[in-house]
Amino acid sequence: MATTADMRNGLIIKLDGNLYSVVEFGQNKTARAAAKVWAKLKGVDNTRSIEHTWNSGDNIFPVRVEKRPYQYLYKDDSGFNLMDNNTFEQIVVSENLIEHPELYKDGQECFVIVNTETELPMGVELPASVNLLVTYSEPGVKGDTATRAMKPATLETGASIQVPLFVNEGEMIKVDSKTGNYIERVKS
Question: What is the pLDDT at residue 34?
Answer without folding.
Answer: 82
